[in-house]
Every structure is written in C-alpha cells, then in structure tokens.
Specification:
This is DUF2520 domain-containing protein. Pfam families: DUF2520, Rossmann-like. By secondary structure, the protein is of the alpha/beta class. Helices cover 50% and strands 11% of the residues. The chain has an 8-stranded mixed β-sheet with strand order 3-2-1-4-5-6-7-8, sandwiched between helices.
Length: 315
Amino acid sequence: MSAETTLPSVFLVGAGAVATALAGAFARAGVHVSGLWARRAEAASASASAAGVSGFGPALPAALGEAEVVVLAVRDDAIAEVADALWQAGALRPTQVLVHCSGARAAADALGITATRVAGAATMHPLRAITASASATSTLAGTIFGIEGDARGLPLVRALVSAIGGKALALAAEHMTLYHAAAAVASNYTVALIDAAVALLARAGITEAEALAALVPLVEGSVANVAAHGIAGGLTGPIRRGDRDTVERHLGALDALDDDPESARLYRVLGLRATDIARRQRGRTTPAHDAIEALLREPSAPNSKAADPGAGDEH
C-alpha cells in the first residue's frame, strides 16, 4: 500500500482491553472506525465510550458489513467460532478483509473456513501487555506488531500499524507459534521467575512486599543492561565471572530444599543458558566456565546441606 493510498475503514469485534486500545488508537490516528460490537451491550458501550467510537450490541449493525477491514479482538479459542457466526448471520461480506489479533496462530488457521470466504485475511498481534485499566489511554505508538497475512490482508495491516505509530514485524505463517512462544517466555515467564525468587526469599523470612522491593529494581537493571549492551553484554553475576564456588554454594542450598526440587532444576537449566551467554561475551570458552557447566550438569544432590550462600555474594 502506497503512502498516498487512503487508509481502510475499520470495524472492531470485541470489547476487551485489546479491542479498546486498538479502537482508540485507530480513531486518534485518523482511521475511520465505523464501530465496535460485542455480544453484551453494556460491554460494547463501555469499550466504545472509552475509545471514542460508536458501540453496538447485541444486535449486529449494518456498519460491520460496511467497513473494509473487520478486526476480531476476541479470545484465541473463539476466533474461528465468532468469524463463522458473523458470516452465517450475514454480517460479513466477501469483499472484506478479516483480521485477528492472536499471536499464536496464522490467519488462515485461526479464522477457519471464514478465511476462504472473504477477500483477505491477516494477523495483527500487539507485542505488548495491554491491561484493561490502561487500554483506553494506550497510544500503542512504538509497539511492535507481529503481522502476517495473504496478498490482500498483509498490506492493509501493515498500513494500519504504521498509522498508529507501531512497528510491523513481518512473520511467515508457519512461524507464528514460535513467535508467540518467544513472547510468552520473555513476558509471562519473567513473572514466573520473579515468583520463584520471591519464594526463595520467603524461606529467609522476607515478605513478598520486601522481596519485590528488592528484586524489581534488579530485574529492571538487567533489562536496561540488555537494551543498552545486548544479551552478551547484559549478563552479570557469578556465572559471567566464572565463579564456580558461588554457583556450587547456590546449588548446595537449593538441593537442600527437599520440598522444592523445582528450584534447583530451574537454576540448573537457566545456569547452562547463562554459561553459554558468558562464553559469547568472551568470544571463547574458559576452564572456569567449563567447570561451571560440568557442575550444572551434575545430578542434583538431595538432602545436601550448605552454609547460607547469601553472605557477601555479588548478584
């Protein structure tokens, strides 16, 4: 789509955080949003009001069939069902382009048979955590969008992403699930890692509030280091330094937790990853890092006892 081409009109289906954020971002960017629909009228009204667009529900409005692009911002497991229901109800036209917002599946798969009934199909997934409380004011500027689609749909979603100040990350259909898995590891599993660290600190008598106050700045600093210096340059701590003794003390303390074998396993798996990063940082392996890898690959030692590993360690 050229810069001179008029942006398509858009209708959104859904009333959740993503639908609200997209509707508001499109409207503020000058994209004609012909409306937003949801099965529950009160939900549609609240979402549309927050976004500054027209809301409809539960009856399907004519405006849905008049838009050039229909965006389904609904649960992943409901996409195909909703698309088919809209088609069976006569709300969709064969000249329209149908877009969904899931990152886990390509459009041809997620939309089911309805993808073959319309003129084009595409994926437009915001790579960002959008909460209900922030959705109405979210500009989405600078947000990465994972996009894919057919010859008709892909240029349209690329243009829409550009219009709201986003950045398009074009993906092949067969890579969508890997892309989404990567996003889950980076976002969702960061929370899980923090939870694991909080649980360990709880054994030392530290409350969750105290643990978060200590750990969140640590996590933020690590993310800032990666942003500034890349992955290899962002690694700190005992594995980067090649400090086998500290790693051994950590493992001894974790292996002693008879009621929590998962913490030691998690430490070993992530420690091996960190060892690979440390080698990349140095551009070579070292005897110290070889020794750490060997230690991390040793089977856990249940009931092993270790002195408090926390005294004087650099994190």
